[in-house]
């Protein structure tokens, strides 16, 4: 018995070894190198290869089907939008459209297109091509495709046949003039035209590679050849390939780009998920720039001579207060919580470099920011007093916080939670921490079911519009805040958003911000935290964008 | 062991180690062996080093509130004053090891860490042991189809590498808590203990004192409870000592993978190393080195003692 | 014989059906789920509804189950939520990376382990022996992710000898033939790629080799000691055979048997170690895939496929082993 078992074991070993050997040998045989033969690549005095380390995999390269920064990073290099952001700001300037205008109702938008712009496949960008894009989005068929057009659903309200749809039609007045008509005015415009998701793609290529084909497969979706292999825009770089085994996305210089042509010949976006490893690769010199350095590493890297580029803060982290809890329905309790939190200390001890205390839900660069909102400076006594006035002493609250996630506005949620809980406990509020994985229940529990009393969450702005911040959070009733009774707030925000006149719009939003702080307080704003980029010394011309919208055509590599 | 139906290679390997241990500790059986082994252990410097490390660890863990200068979760103004995300204050008056990333007293956290680590290690080991022993005892005492079923189950569990099994369990639970970590690490050990106990009981079934008891008409339940189980426990205790080391290492690994205990208020060495230690390594390397050293020492202590006990109980060494 | 095969095949099918069902219903009962994983912060309730419909989650659970089974039977596990490519592509791409790493680790563990173990046994009780034992004990007691971190920090950051992460230098533009980068370089004569890939292998392989190395040293040492104690060695010694002859002919050959077995049996432990090592070195293998598909955003399709594939491989390998064993050993056939 013993001996025979021994044999069996040896046999198993042999089989294991055999399988490995077979795999190896079977794979062998003849193979040819398909490497580019250009021997002098990367050695030229100008040009060269710029390697940028991103933080995650892109999903695909069809702009309309994406909603995350890691997908938008390569997409932005390959495509252009009608309107662009001025480098380094959230202000608008002409993109594919040299100029734009709207009628007094804010419903008709006229775009004067740049002349002589060509897509990467050689077809011309004209008004018909622009309208083809708008019509494509509006008429997109199928739940699968529609469900992946997250920005479109948000900004344009819906698709063909939906009563909420904002888009009406697009007409090519002449080859250089596209007129887009909406059913109603929305504050999101014109800012939303600059969203990377609404980049203009080549209609020829989209037709050729079946761009609209999104098929459900298992628990996810498969995208067309257009989205995965043949993305075709007008951008400064053309698609060169995505090596998934090494996590490298290669983009090549587009010599026919209409704007400032790329200074480098080649751009590689390398996916490195671990922030620590990104930093180490930067030090090793194998990448020339990294996104989202760990906040803890900024000082050291700057000290070693790397360039730490801060993006102007365009985000917000807030502490949500759920009024489903009757105690939190009382404004005094919500104010007590605001007073109990030492935000200055939170920013000092845990804020990434350059973070500032937030007193409202939008950064001060956004239209409608009110400098004179009620401030809740740290005041423990006041907090305790308000709590006892409200009869809410001995309050116990369930505090939901996410795990397994790091966001630019929230680099380390567990630490932020611990600090906040500590402050609240000092004010006599008992905190029951409930950690939930970001994709494993947090978003569901918090935004869908509103199970929490308190939670932390935040937002990075997409374009310079107060509606994109305050409107998104508080413009309608949400389970996240349990605020169905706050009809006054919804009406005020709805009105401000619908105001076409810019001066009146500004005043309306300023009042909303004041009321949010003093009267409504559905959440406590915590901080604005600028996400950083770090590059090696020889990288010039990289302009950090508040919207994390960097374009790499201006980058040069000096010796 | 059924001839057909050996499971994977790894299961075999583990099974063989368990069987060896069983054979060594239960063949000779009896009190004299244990007494003998105890004497040998006392003379063995390796065992003594292990025992001293464990004793020290236990003392710190049990008397943590007396040893630690401060409360491990309190934030101190004198520490938060100079604390930023890229600089963590070092030693100051009253805080011999300085601050942790949240302005808490690091020395106190290290000391309380012994307690939490002991808690995780002991519970993970104990739960594994409990279920393992019950399953093993049932398999060994009842036999028949139940035995076959239980052994099949343990075969399957042994075939998966322990850390992978723990990761799968945490994933299946959808989120991690201190308890998912403890249970995941515990479950990994259930089959080891079950096999161990069953083997040991089978070996005893034919031993003289059990045969004698049976001849005297002692009831089966009493034979199992009074004679067989106590004698099998030596092997189980040895294994538990070795398991403890693996348990705290696995808990640390889970923390590193982001699947550990999510509550960073809890001062547990694996958590401190796997989360803060790694994140702030360049800002203050002690945040990694100290918990790592503590884990290494404790794991070493338990391994040394466990291996010495195993050797001491080995009848081959009785010459 | 035929009956054995038949029984095992039935067993295989039953196990797979049970497991598939279990995985399907379990994953669907988890909070969040693919809908959460697919939607970012910007999703409106309407998009959420659309997505639920698009994925068919609004249909009766049995319809969903039927579709799932149909897909699985045809080998289609859907597309990854993270990268949008078919799950089987993701898995087959990660596989060679892990094998390459594991093979390198095993080579290091054997290459160092056997000689060290042998030397320790030869000098039993002396300084060298004790030092080896202490080092192996520490090797078993150190959290290997931390060891990896230390090695990486020391040898890639303080002293720039090795590359910090990945399998090949970015922009190397190596031709991918088999997915084994070292091998690919040789096949396509891109020898610089081979050298580069080997260079990237050094630190991860050393990290992953730590535990098997410690185990191999200990087992070699123990088994050499056992053999040295055996009568036939003493006899040989007494006969006056030269020391080197004894060593070569008797000690090593006999001592290596248990060592060889152990090496073959380290596979599972290596995979567990790979999960940690790959995370430290950003090594795009199965280990990374496992962590990424859980903590990196709940990639349920990948997770599902990994669990089922592990089960299939496990059952099939066992079936093959048992069958070939039955062919070789007539005694089993009689049973």
From TrEMBL, chain B:
GO terms for biological process: transmembrane transport. It is found in: Cell membrane. It comes from the Bacteria. It is a multi-pass membrane protein. It holds the Pfam family OppC_N. Residues 114-306 form the ABC transmembrane type-1 domain. PROSITE patterns: ABC_TM1 (PS50928). One of its GO terms (cellular component) is plasma membrane. The chain crosses the membrane at residues 47-68, 118-146, 153-173, 179-197, 229-249, 287-306. Gene3D superfamilies: MetI-like. Keywords: Cell membrane, Membrane, Transmembrane, Transmembrane helix, Transport. PANTHER family: D,D-DIPEPTIDE TRANSPORT SYSTEM PERMEASE PROTEIN DDPC-RELATED (PTHR43386:SF1), OLIGOPEPTIDE TRANSPORT SYSTEM PERMEASE PROTEIN APPC (PTHR43386). Belongs to the binding-protein-dependent transport system permease family. This is ABC transporter permease. It comes from Actinoplanes auranticolor. The lineage of its organism: Bacteria, Bacillati, Actinomycetota, Actinomycetes, Micromonosporales.
TrEMBL record, chain C:
Pfam families: BPD_transp_1 (PF00528), BPD_transp_1_N (PF19300). The keyword rRNA-binding does not apply. Keywords: Cell membrane, Membrane, Transmembrane, Transmembrane helix, Transport. Its main location: membrane. SUPFAM superfamilies: MetI-like. It is found in: Cell membrane. The keyword Cytoplasm does not apply. Signal peptide: none annotated. It comes from the Bacteria. Residues 95-321 form the ABC transmembrane type-1 domain. GO terms for biological process: transmembrane transport. It is a multi-pass membrane protein. InterPro entries: BPD_transp_1_N, MetI-like, MetI-like_sf. GO terms for cellular component: plasma membrane. The chain crosses the membrane at residues 9-27, 101-121, 133-151, 197-217, 255-276, 305-328. Belongs to the binding-protein-dependent transport system permease family. This is Peptide ABC transporter permease. It comes from Actinoplanes auranticolor. The lineage of its organism: Bacteria, Bacillati, Actinomycetota, Actinomycetes, Micromonosporales.
């Amino acid at each position: 018995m013993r001996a025979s078992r021994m044999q069996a074991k040896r046999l198993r070993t042999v089989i294991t070894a055999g399988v490995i050997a077979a795999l190896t040998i079977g794979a062998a045989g003849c193979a040819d190198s398909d490497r580019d033969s250009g021997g002098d690549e990367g050695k030229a005095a100008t040009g060269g290869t710029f390697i940028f380390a991103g933080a995650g995999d892109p999903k695909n390269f069809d702009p309309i089907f994406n909603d995350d920064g890691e997908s938008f990073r390569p997409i932005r290099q390959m495509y252009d939008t009608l309107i662009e952001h001025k480098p380094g700001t959230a202000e608008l300037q002409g993109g594919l459209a040299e100029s734009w205008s709207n009628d007094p109702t804010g419903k008709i938008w006229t775009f004067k297109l740049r002349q002589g712009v060509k897509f990467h496949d050689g077809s011309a960008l004209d008004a018909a091509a622009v309208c083809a894009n708008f019509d494509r989005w509006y008429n997109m068929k199928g739940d699968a495709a529609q469900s992946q057009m997250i920005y479109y659903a948000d900004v344009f309200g819906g698709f063909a046949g939906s009563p909420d749809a904002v888009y009406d039609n697009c007409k090519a007045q002449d080859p250089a003039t596209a007129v887009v008509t909406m059913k109603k005015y929305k504050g999101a415009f014109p800012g939303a035209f600059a969203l990377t998701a609404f980049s203009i793609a080549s209609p020829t290529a989209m037709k050729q590679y079946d761009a609209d084909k999104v098929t459900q497969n298992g628990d996810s979706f498969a995208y067309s050849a257009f989205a995965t292999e043949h993305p075709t825009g007008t951008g400064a770089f053309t698609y060169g390939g995505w090596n998934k085994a090494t996590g490298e996305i290669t983009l090549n210089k587009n010599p026919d780009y209409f704007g400032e042509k790329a200074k480098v010949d080649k751009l590689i976006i390398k996916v490195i998920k671990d922030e620590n490893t990104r930093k180490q690769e930067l030090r090793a010199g194998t990448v020339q720039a990294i996104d989202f350095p760990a906040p803890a590493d900024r000082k050291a890297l700057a000290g070693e001579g790397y360039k730490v580029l801060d993006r102007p803060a365009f985000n917000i982290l807030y502490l949500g207060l759920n009024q489903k809890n009757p105690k939190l329905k009382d404004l005094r309790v919500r104010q007590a919580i605001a007073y109990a939190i030492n935000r200055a200390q939170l920013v000092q001890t845990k804020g990434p470099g350059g973070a500032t205390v937030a007193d409202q839900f939008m950064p001060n660069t956004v239209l409608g920011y009110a400098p004179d909102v009620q401030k809740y400076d740290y005041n423990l006594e006041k907090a305790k007093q308000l709590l006892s006035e409200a009869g809410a002493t001995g309050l116990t609250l369930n505090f939901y916080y996410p795990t397994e996630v790091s966001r630019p506005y929230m680099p380390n949620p567990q630490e932020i939670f611990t600090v906040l809980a500590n402050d609240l406990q000092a004010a006599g509020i008992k905190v029951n921490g409930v950690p939930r994985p970001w994709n494993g229940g947090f978003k569901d529990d918090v935004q869908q079911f509103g199970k929490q009393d308190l939670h932390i969450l935040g937002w990075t702005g997409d374009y310079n519009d107060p509606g994109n911040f305050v409107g998104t959070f508080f413009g309608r009733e949400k389970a996240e805040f349990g605020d169905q009774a706050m009809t006054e707030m919804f009406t005020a925000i709805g009105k401000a958003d619908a105001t076409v006149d810019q001066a009146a719009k500004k005043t309306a939003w300023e009042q909303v911000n004041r009321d949010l702080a003093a009267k409504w307080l559905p959440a406590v704003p915590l901080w604005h935290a600028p996400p950083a980029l770090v590059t090696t010394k020889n990288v010039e011309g990289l302009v950090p964008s508040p919207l994390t919208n960097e374009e790499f055509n201006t980058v040069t590599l000096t010796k | 062991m059924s001839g057909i139906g050996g499971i994977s290679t790894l299961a075999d390997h583990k099974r063989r180690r368990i069987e060896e241990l069983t054979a060594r500790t239960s063949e000779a059986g009896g009190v004299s062996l244990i007494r003998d082994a105890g004497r040998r252990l006392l003379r063995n410097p390796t065992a003594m080093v292990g025992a001293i490390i464990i004793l020290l660890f236990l003392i710190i863990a049990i008397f943590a509130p007396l040893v630690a200068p401060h409360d491990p979760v309190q934030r101190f103004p004198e520490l938060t004053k100079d604390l930023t995300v890229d600089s963590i204050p070092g030693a100051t008056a009253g805080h011999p090891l300085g601050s942790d990333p949240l302005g808490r007293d690091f020395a106190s956290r290290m000391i309380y860490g012994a307690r939490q680590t002991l808690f995780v290690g002991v519970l993970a080991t104990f739960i594994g042991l409990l279920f393992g022993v019950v399953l093993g005892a049932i398999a060994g005492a009842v036999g028949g189809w139940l035995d076959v079923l239980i052994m099949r189950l343990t075969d399957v569990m042994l075939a998966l590498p322990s850390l992978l099994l723990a990761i799968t369990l945490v994933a299946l639970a959808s989120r991690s808590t201190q308890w998912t970590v403890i249970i995941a690490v515990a479950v990994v050990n259930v089959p080891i203990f079950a096999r161990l106990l069953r083997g040991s009981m089978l070996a005893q079934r034919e031993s003289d004192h059990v045969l004698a008891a049976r001849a005297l008409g002692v009831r089966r339940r009493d034979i199992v409870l009074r004679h067989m189980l106590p004698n099998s426990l030596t092997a189980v205790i040895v294994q538990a000592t070795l398991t403890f080391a693996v348990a705290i290492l696995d808990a640390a690994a889970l923390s590193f993978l982001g699947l550990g205990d999510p509550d960073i208020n809890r001062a547990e060495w694996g958590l401190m190393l796997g989360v803060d230690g790694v994140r702030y390594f360049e800002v203050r390397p002690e945040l990694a080195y100290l918990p790592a050293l503590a884990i290494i020492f404790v794991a070493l202590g338990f391994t040394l003692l466990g291996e010495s006990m195993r050797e001491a109980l080995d009848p081959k060494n009785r010459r | 014989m035929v009956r054995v095969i038949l029984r095992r095949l039935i067993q295989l099918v039953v196990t797979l059906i049970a497991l598939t069902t279990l995985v399907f219903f379990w994953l669907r009962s988890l909070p969040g789920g693919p809908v959460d994983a697919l939607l970012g912060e910007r999703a409106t309730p309407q998009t959420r509804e659309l997505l639920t419909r698009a994925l068919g989650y609004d249909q009766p659970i049995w319809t969903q189950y039927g579709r799932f089974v149909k897909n699985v039977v045809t080998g289609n596990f859907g597309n990854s939520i993270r990268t949008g490519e078919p799950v089987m592509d993701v898995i087959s791409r990660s596989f060679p990376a892990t094998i390459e790493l594991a093979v390198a680790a095993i080579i290091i563990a054997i290459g160092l382990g056997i000689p060290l173990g042998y030397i320790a046994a030869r000098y039993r009780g002396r300084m060298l022996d004790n030092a080896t034992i202490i080092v192996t004990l520490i090797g078993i007691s150190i959290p290997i992710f931390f060891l990896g971190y230390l090695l990486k920090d020391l040898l890639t950051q303080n002293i720039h000898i090795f590359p910090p992460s990945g399998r090949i230098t970015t922009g190397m533009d190596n031709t991918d033939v088999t997915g084994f980068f070292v091998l690919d370089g040789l096949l396509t004569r891109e020898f610089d790629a081979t050298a580069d890939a080997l260079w990237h292998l050094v630190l991860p392989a050393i990290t992953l080799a730590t535990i098997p190395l410690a185990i191999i040293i200990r087992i070699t040492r123990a088994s050499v000691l056992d053999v040295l104690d055996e009568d036939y060695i003493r006899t040989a010694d007494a006969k006056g055979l030269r020391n080197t002859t004894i060593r070569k002919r008797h000690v090593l050959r006999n001592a290596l048997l248990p060592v060889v077995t152990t090496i073959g049996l380290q596979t599972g432990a290596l995979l567990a170690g790979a999960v940690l090592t790959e995370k430290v070195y950003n090594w795009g293998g199965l280990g990374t895939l496992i962590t990424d598909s859980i903590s990196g955003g709940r990639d349920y399709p990948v997770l599902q496929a990994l669990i089922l594939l592990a089960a299939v491989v496990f059952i099939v390998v066992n079936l093959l082993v048992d069958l070939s064993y039955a062919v070789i050993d007539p005694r089993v056939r009689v049973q």
